[in-house]
TrEMBL record:
Residues 1-220 form the Radical SAM core domain. GO terms for molecular function: catalytic activity; iron-sulfur cluster binding; metal ion binding. InterPro entries: Aldolase_TIM, Radical_SAM_PqqE_MftC-like, rSAM, rSAM_sf. SUPFAM superfamilies: Radical SAM enzymes (SSF102114). It comes from the Bacteria. Keywords: Iron, Iron-sulfur, Metal-binding, S-adenosyl-L-methionine. This is Radical SAM core domain-containing protein.
């Protein structure tokens, strides 16, 4: 079985403590580099075309530059989701290896952005990265995506965010807006930013008629992300984030380091919602 796209949560460790986090527990460390190399060989066996490196903060993984270069050498397209805090420390490897870069902005002001991220610095580093590509367009990856999580923390702010992004319209390929998902990790902390389901639809409808960025906006509702990923966690397990009565849990399908990869893939195919899986990776399929 061929797995076209894999979301690889390399690590739970992160310098931020975002309330909306869709990542593993912060106590989860990355596997040793030799195990990561083994997993890359397994991804190649599965004929994977695209790897999304995420976390936690993937740029905190030891030898992450080597990992990105190895993926590229294997002919696998590298996508990177980073909070931008360590972007410039890894700029050379990112420019060399990353075809798709996803960077987050969660508010039109420092205060709104930090409401859910509990951090102000990442607001500024986001704009530093955008300005870097504005000044160096030849270094821009083939796909530059802005990611924003919709929640009660930034409700009512999306037209204002769009106005800030418009001067960078020539750089931004996709603005992906994720509806907040109530995840099994840190649910008590997330309670303060849980939104009403109908508010997401209303605000997105208003946004789409009030910004010239509308053709580049991709809406990722909570419902459409149910059973939507071939996700590898920091232990090397394949998990499928699955909604269970309004709370999303990681359902473990198998262990790639201790089970035949094709067996894990077959189990995955019997559990996944293929329509959701294709929808959530569609922008990458079209680009690459």
């Amino acid at each position: 079985m061929i797995i076209k796209a894999i979301d690889w949560k390399l690590i739970g460790t992160c310098n931020l403590r975002c309330l909306h986090c869709y990542g593993p527990p912060k106590t989860e460390r990355a596997l040793p580099t030799e195990n990561l190399r083994v997993l890359i060989e397994i991804f190649k066996e599965l004929e994977c075309k695209l790897i999304v490196l995420t976390g936690g903060e993937p740029l905190l993984v030891k030898d992450i530059d080597e990992i990105m270069r190895l993926l590229k050498a294997k002919g696998i397209t590298v996508a990177l989701s980073t909070n931008t805090s360590y972007f410039f420390e890894h700029g050379e490897a990112i420019n060399e290896c990353v075809s798709s870069l996803n960077i987050p902005l969660d508010g039109s002001t420092v205060e709104i952005h930090s409401h859910s991220r509990l951090d102000e610095k990442s607001f500024h580093s986001f704009w530093e990265v955008l300005q870097y590509y504005k000044n160096n367009p030849d270094k821009k990856p083939r796909m530059l995506r802005v990611g924003t999580v919709y929640s009660a923390a930034n409700h009512g702010d999306f037209v204002a965010i769009a106005k800030l992004l418009q001067p960078f319209d020539d750089l931004i390929d996709t603005w992906k807006i994720y509806e907040l998902i109530d995840y099994e990790f840190q649910p008590d902390l997330r309670k303060s930013i849980i939104h009403r389901r109908e508010d997401f639809e209303k605000e997105m409808s208003n946004l789409l008629i009030n910004t010239s960025l509308a053709p580049k906006i991709f809406l990722a509702s909570a419902q459409a992300r149910d059973k939507a990923y071939f996700m590898v966690n920091p232990k090397g397990q394949v998990v499928i984030p699955t909604d269970q009565n309004g709370m999303t849990f990681e359902v473990v399908i198998g262990d790639l380091l201790n089970m035949p990869a094709q067996l894990v893939a077959e189990r995955w195919s019997q559990t996944i919602n293929m329509e959701h899986y294709c929808l959530n990776h569609d922008t990458h399929y079209k680009k690459f």
